[in-house]
Design a protein that fits this description.
Blueprint (H helix, E strand, L loop, with lengths): L4 E2 L4 E6 L19 H9 L4 E7 L20 E4 L2 E4 L25 E5 L22 H8 L3 E7 L1 H14 L3 E10 L6 H11 L3 E3 L4 E2 L1
Parallel strand pairs: 1-10, 2-3, 2-7, 3-6, 7-8, 8-9
Antiparallel strand pairs: 4-5
Length: about 210
């Protein structure tokens, strides 16, 4: 976008899954995932409203390769709600991997949305589980607070950021994805595909420098 975007009191910074398991040395490490933390901290200090999401999977979760005999991470299976990529065990409550990155400043967050806690279904989006029917409650929360524009940051571009952005658009929100505050896993050029899909859905691709406060 060519001109500066003024951030208003009706805008929300949505920080997606900046947890140890997705950062350096984590069970499902996103390449350069730690790089988003300082950018997010700068933004979070300026936005009037901040919300966080947190992947939250019980042991034996259906998305874990270890839950399926003879399956390996990144293999794909079909479940009642559709195709599922299998992942290493990650973000299990009570483990260090499920905790937020230690340098992430979460003091001003107003709400934390935990997702994926249903053992039988994965949940990438901050708005819906992967059946695209079971809501997390975030949409109602945002509407009740009068928050109309969402600025998305976090991990990973090609999964939880992507699905959250698409569902937010489907729910009628204006969505901005801040390019220098997200990082992707990138499976078979999935990051490039994610940006294209988001653009087609009307998601604005911006950078931190495009914002004014």
């Amino acid at each position: 976008m060519s001109s500066k975007i003024h951030v208003s009191p009706h805008d929300l910074l949505l920080v997606i899954d900046v947890q140890n398991d997705f950062c350096g040395g984590g069970a499902l490490e996103v390449p350069h995932g730690d790089d988003v933390v300082p950018v997010i901290n700068r933004l979070a200090a300026k936005f009037a409203h901040v919300a966080l999401t947190q992947d939250w999977h019980p042991k034996g979760h259906v998305s874990f390769a270890s839950s399926h005999k003879a399956k390996q991470p990144l293999q794909r299976i079909t479940l009642p709600y559709g195709e599922q990529i299998l992942w290493p065990d990650h973000c299990v409550p009570g483990t260090k991997g499920a905790e937020f990155h230690p340098d992430l400043n979460i003091a001003r967050a107003e709400v934390i949305i935990r997702k994926g806690f249903n053992r039988a279904i994965d949940s990438y989006s901050a708005f819906y589980e992967n059946d695209h029917k079971t809501a997390t409650g975030l949409s109602g929360y945002l509407r009740s607070r009068g928050l109309v524009r969402l600025f998305m940051v976090g991990l990973a571009t090609d999964f939880c950021v992507l699905y959250s952005a698409l569902d937010a658009r489907s729910e009628g929100f204006e969505v901005f994805a801040i390019e220098d505050a997200v990082r992707g896993i990138d499976i078979e050029a999935s990051v490039e595909k994610a940006w294209k899909t988001m653009a087609e859905a009307g998601v604005h691709r911006i950078r931190e420098q495009d914002l004014s406060f």
